[in-house]
């Protein structure tokens, strides 16, 4: 079987400089590239810390309407630390959402593209929960 690794996700934005400032300065995510390829194309690539997948935005990168991307997701080991980090950086972030399948916080970039940050559950507890609910595991 061939490994298919997601490398890059395009994020539709209206203002490249504002988005670069949000992802690079506000979130503190490393800006890997910021290149003007031509008069029609500017390419900015940002990688969340610890991620093997980057996001890209710019001019001439996507034909999706700005702010139309939903449910980009990162996984963290501590939702409390992620929540505190985002709040400390001035990001408008939700309260922690407790679910059987994980713990989440949510935020949006300046254009309205939405992100969820998930702390994965202890799957042994998930099996207990499924049993309590009479739910059948699909794994």
Automatic annotation (TrEMBL):
Membrane-spanning parts: none
Residues making up the signal peptide according to the UniProt record: none
The protein's name: Catechol 2,3-dioxygenase-like lactoylglutathione lyase family enzyme
Pfam family, one: Glyoxalase
Organism per entry: Pseudoclavibacter helvolus
Ranges for domain VOC: 5-120
Keywords: Dioxygenase, Lyase, Oxidoreductase
GO MF annotation: an example: lyase activity
PROSITE patterns: VOC (PS51819)
The keyword Transport is assigned to this record: no
Keyword Mitochondrion: no
